[in-house]
Specification:
Two copies of one chain form a homodimer. Chain A has 471 residues and is α/β, with parallel strands linked by helices. Chain A folds into two domains: 296 residues, 3-Layer(aba) Sandwich (Rossmann fold); 165 residues, Rossmann fold, CATH 3.40.50.261. Helices cover 41% and strands 17% of the residues of chain A. In chain A, the strands form three sheets. Chain A has a seven-stranded mixed sheet with strand order 3-4-2-1-5-6-7, sandwiched between helices. The first copy, chain A, has a seven-stranded mixed sheet with strand order 9-8-11-10-12-13-14, sandwiched between helices. The longest helix of chain A has 17 residues. The two termini of chain A are 39 Å apart.
Chain lengths: 471, 471
């Protein structure tokens, strides 16, 4: 196989992410079937390109005409989404290539992740790809998402996907499916490009990272990989991308048992993580160690900047949190430094004298004396102005008895101090916290249900800041 | 001060936790004031003992007669809750002692945690306690809770507190306040005894641990401490208690900055944790490192047994979770072992042949072929029966399109396999997950919003099992 030059690679991926036309091969009229869900997803997201459908039965599906064969299609459609079984794949790809359809998403599983006969199919598939010159995403993937084009190849029911600046490259199709549903319903931020690599017989993480590095719509990049196909090339690409964009990686299959699960999942042979760990650090990639951080850290960056340093101030309605969250900050590489004298004076102004105000900010007494909005608002603004502070976390405590405040002052502070991230977390009455989180996140202030989460996220962002500076 | 013998100590704490009568000194008619909230809390929880009130203004509060002075009270009331300012404390304690009231909760802050004059007040308080022989919980505490007696001294609005078998000993009053509200509204388990130590001028963690160790209502014990007053006595008591009851400790103030916050919070001088770490292990205490684990681990034990071993099986609707959660299990000391041949055969029976069933259980294909309830139910029962498995986690994926199943089969399995813990977690559509969690927890199946949480909890429970066996 001759090596494609980078310009050609970018061109081929462009048709995955910005197609002007797409054909669903294996289109189905049956709700819930992949060949039907993918059409509904395209329609729900308002894809403006032309949608073609192929099914030997013909007729009409979801209001669109169905072609009975690939040969009936016009030439040079930008992209094909194939939802047929594994065994039908080779012939379909040849038919596509013959019609000039060179970018193909393969949903089918049943390849190397299953058994030797699946592995043989995968070898045949590889041969077909080389012979035809098509580019393939998959097989064994839920597909991909490209919100700047209102486009998705996912066969997992998604509905309207919110658009944002966070992009994902994941071994699993999960992020174009179940995890995206979680993000949409629980975390309230939008995505830009999402690609499930699956068995990555052709398009791999290095191709995609290269594309996203140059993508003006993508501000931060999150990867979940169960193996790295070409580590040298990947590191080379990453070294360039991470100079400009925060880039995070969760490696799956790092334990022996996890590696065995990865083999069953996407036929991945996990690399020895001790060997690649140093290389990742050198390439400026920030490692994650929890799946949930793939969306919690993403949320933090979706609407707030990367903190300029590791110095945190936080407001707490309980002395126990000032103690425990300070411990946590220190354990993840953050500082909870002294604040400026004028900041301390302002905090003391709004507090009963029996509390000695400092950082972290014990806000309970002030709230009892004044009000939630006044005390949190004044104290947050004081520490946001402080030159010793890079990020601010507000731990809120809302109950029926305190009453539910307006959170608009927090949204306003976030707008007036855009250089410093503000995160919110909670302890108290669950229903109020749930409502506060949803409201704040709809207005671009990230909120976290458990009190440790924003501090853990800040620790990861601090590692990212250092990785990007090569520290 | 003469040392009280253990029997006498137990007797004194008995009046804290099972009082037949209580007097609120500083009773207030003003809603929201501590001296009013404590009365409402007692009434809301149906305390059946006699409630006396003292306020120089007399009259009636919350339907109860108010005595104008302590001297007007009958003799030998079991317990006094004093909600007066710090400066009034000494005289009030002497008046209580004169009337035979020997168990006293001191809510006031403004002692050693604040400044030198507060430290002087605390020294005077200590002298008064020694001279009168009263036992004091506090000062600087939100109070305590004792649900077997439907009793609380908390001045944080709580309403009706659910009764359970988990008990807390915490430096902070928080667990009789804001954290208890979180538990009640977000975690859905009941508590037995909760004591906020505050500045622990008299009653300390060793006294309480000794009491809870003998308390037939308490099944597991969680401590949050910012310092250990008498480490040798505490370890001696713990060595006995941990033979029978799972006992967990989060130490606050372990970082230098955290220690400084602890000094400001409860005037605690945090011990050097490296010195006590070995001693805690030897005493059979399981250390926690996150505040949220104080309720997440508690919830896991509130209605499920401690697992008999470290061997976990889990059901996943995504290959990515089989990989990542296996990695996580291994990293926290759990195994994800091979299952028995007959279990594997049963799993293969209910699955499409293109998925090779194993542990962890990739359940997605089976659900697509059968139904959520059938596939999860059969697979969970198969692994629950397996002699290689000690605990089972089900990762659910519910969306509008899958439909919302009945979760009763999980509740039924929990009843039929009481020797093995079952936990539930989620990925998918948030609103369904929230509803599922609430329903399952109301029926004694612990559920966790983030997918890592049950595995992290199982890792901690495994450390607990080993600590209790002296491993």
């Amino acid at each position: 196989m001759t090596r494609r030059n980078p310009a050609q690679t970018a061109h081929h991926l462009e048709k995955f992410f910005s197609p002007k036309s797409v054909v669903v091969i294996g289109a189905s009229a049956t709700p819930g079937k992949p060949g039907n869900v993918v059409i509904r997803n395209l329609q729900a997201n308002g894809f403006e390109g032309k949608i073609y459908l192929v099914n030997p039965r013909g007729g009409e599906i979801e209001g669109l005409k169905v072609h009975t064969s690939i040969t009936d299609l016009p030439d040079n459609i930008d992209q094909a989404i194939i939802t047929l079984p594994a065994a039908a794949t080779m012939e379909t790809i040849r038919d596509c290539a013959a019609k000039g359809i060179m970018s193909i998403v393969l949903a089918a599983s049943g390849f190397a992740e299953v058994d030797p006969s699946g592995a043989q199919l995968q070898a045949d598939l590889k041969k077909t790809i080389m012979e035809t010159g098509v580019r393939v995403l998959g097989p064994n993937t839920t597909g991909h998402v490209s919100m700047p084009s209102n486009f998705t190849s996912s066969f997992f029911p998604l509905g309207r996907i919110p658009r944002g600046n966070v992009s994902y490259i994941t071994q699993t199709g999960n992020f174009s499916g179940i995890s995206l549903r979680h993000i949409m319903s629980a975390e309230n931020f939008g995505v830009c490009r999402v690609a499930g690599l699956g068995n990555k017989i052709d398009v791999d993480e290095a191709d995609l990272l290269d594309y996203l590095g140059q993508d003006p719509e993508t501000k931060s990049i999150f990867l979940y990989l169960e193996g790295i196909k070409n580590p040298q090339r990947f590191m080379r690409v990453a070294s360039k991308v991470t100079r400009k964009k925060p880039t995070f990686l969760l490696m799956g299959g790092v334990s022996n048992a996890g590696a065995s699960a990865a083999l069953a999942h996407t036929a991945s042979l996990a690399s020895d993580e001790r060997i690649i760990d140093g290389a990742l650090a050198q390439a400026g990639i920030t490692r994650l160690f929890k799946y949930s951080h793939l969306f919690q850290v993403a949320k933090a960056l979706a609407c707030m900047p990367l903190p300029a340093g590791n110095r945190v101030s936080f407001l707490s309605p309980s002395g126990a949190f000032t103690v425990c969250m300070t411990d946590l900050c220190l354990s993840v590489g953050l500082e909870v430094p002294d604040i400026e004298d004028k900041t301390r004076a302002r905090l003391q102004d709004i507090s009963p004298s029996f509390i000695r105000m400092r950082n972290p900010v014990d806000i309970f007494g002030s709230v009892a004396l004044h009000s939630f909005e006044f005390s949190y608002g004044e104290a947050m603004e004081a520490v946001l102005k402080d030159k010793n502070i890079d990020a601010v976390v507000a731990i809120l405590m809302i109950t029926d008895e305190t009453g539910v405040p307006s959170y608009d002052f927090i949204i306003d502070l976030a707008k007036r101090y855009p250089a410093k991230p503000i995160y919110v977390t909670f302890m108290g009455q669950h229903n109020h916290n749930v409502a506060a989180k949803a409201y704040l996140e709809r207005h671009d202030v990230p909120a976290f249900m458990l009190v440790e989460e924003p501090f853990e996220v800040l620790g990861i962002l601090n590692r990212c800041r250092m990785a990007m500076k090569g520290e």
